[in-house]
Amino acid sequence: MISPASSRATPSLDAIQPTLVTPNPLCCEVTSSIRPSSAEPIYRQLADHVRRRVVSGQIRAGDEIPSVRQMALLLAVNPMTISKAYGLLKAEGLLEKRRGLTMRVAPQHQRAQPAASRIELLRPVLSRAASEARQLQLPTHVAMGLFEELLKEDHTATAAARR
Hints:
The protein is an all-alpha fold. It has helices at residues 13-16, 27-33, 42-55, 68-75, 79-91, 115-135, 140-162, and strands spanning 95-96, 104-105.
């Protein structure tokens, strides 16, 4: 006798999806920094995120990054999106590809870059924020207050996550 379909056990999503074997420093914050609703393409957001983490010294030379498949599952996006971001970073010399192994941060990125390099990465973001504040006709002290509040909020959340 054939049993009804309802009596069959269906595998859980956890059983189907591969999991990261070891925690990866890149995965910790990437999901909160990628915004699918943004006008900026996801591949560019991911490339910028990795770039900032390397330049700030949060991930360093030799650190492995999640595979294309792992990152695509984590962000719930097409693997080609991740591949495009990784390809850009490889072309910039930020990542290196090893045949049959995961990509990793290139050897020349041993420590955090000088403050001037990090400031240059932040400048376009702040420029866009300043432009939007002007369009919204917000007074400078209000925009600056909001920026300070966000910096403190993020710093508090990061410190709590490390404990």
